[in-house]
Amino acid sequence: MEKRLVLTRLREVGIIPVVRVESGEQAIAVAEVIREAGIPILEITLTVTDAVKVIEKLSTRYGDDVLIGAGTVLDHKTANACIDAGAQFVVSPVLNLRTIELCKDRSVAVFPGALTPTEVFSAWEAGADAVKIFPCSAVGGAGYLRTLKAPLPHINLIPTGGVSLSTASDLIAAGAMALGVGSELINMEAIKAGDFETVAVTARSFVAAIYQVRSTEVIK
């Protein structure tokens, strides 16, 4: 899928589930649950066992029906391997300029991590398609995001870290392009117990929350 279409879908859906589980088998099981619940996007973190193989397997299985991205990517060589495996976007908790350059050269969306206004602007100026604000909740959540957007309204921001159902609406209203959602959605206790319905219910709740706030904005 072309990068512009990847970015359009990410913006429309508004949720990037961050899959940080213990095994490739769990990641694949979660992927199916999340897709069926209405979120056709997954970020497979490199902390998952055999993450690159998982990305390849999911990319082959779903094609363009589900956007499969790579998360916790710390360098350009790893990014390259993930893209070769089929990753359609690359996410990092840090700002690594060589990773941004590599993704630009390969026409793949890249979301480096940043926190301060200077870091955010540096990432955007280097060619980031959006900037992952991490850890967002630790520095004020929606209030902090709104403060960043005031002088930097043109920069796409993806708050991640501590995003929950109770904060999702405020973050979208504050100007988030999308939300990176980890443990609040990918509940490890439920997954270990084989209770994937809990994950599905939470996923649908996030979808409803995003839809509600964006519908309200349209009406205004």
Architecture blueprint of SSEs:
Layout: H1 3-13, E1 15-19, H2 24-36, E2 41-45, H3 51-62, E3 67-71, H4 76-84, E4 89-91, H5 97-105, E5 109-111, E6 113-114, H6 117-126, E7 131-133, H7 142-149, E8 157-159, H8 165-173, E9 179-181, H9 188-192, H10 196-219
Parallel strand pairs: 1-2, 1-9, 2-3, 3-4, 4-5, 6-7, 7-8
Task: Describe the protein.
The chain has 220 residues and is of the alpha/beta class. 50% of the residues lie in helices and 15% in strands. It has 10 helices and 9 strands. It has helices at 3-13, 24-36, 51-62, 76-84, 97-105, 117-126, 142-149, 165-173, 188-192, 196-219; strands at 15-19, 41-45, 67-71, 89-91, 109-111, 113-114, 131-133, 157-159, 179-181. It has a 6-stranded parallel β-sheet, with helices on both faces. Helix 4 (76-84) runs parallel beside helix 5 and helix 7 (142-149) runs parallel beside helix 8 (165-173). The chain is globular and about 45 Å long. The termini are far apart. The relative contact order is 0.15.
Give the spatial strand order of the biggest sheet: 5-4-3-2-1-9
Task: Assign the structural class, choosing from mainly alpha, mainly beta, alpha/beta, alpha+beta, or little secondary structure.
Answer: alpha/beta
Helix content: 40-55%
End-to-end Cα distance, whole Å, is: 33 Å
Alpha-carbon Rg, integer: 16 Å
Q: In a few lines, what is going on in this structure?
A:
The chain is of the alpha/beta class.
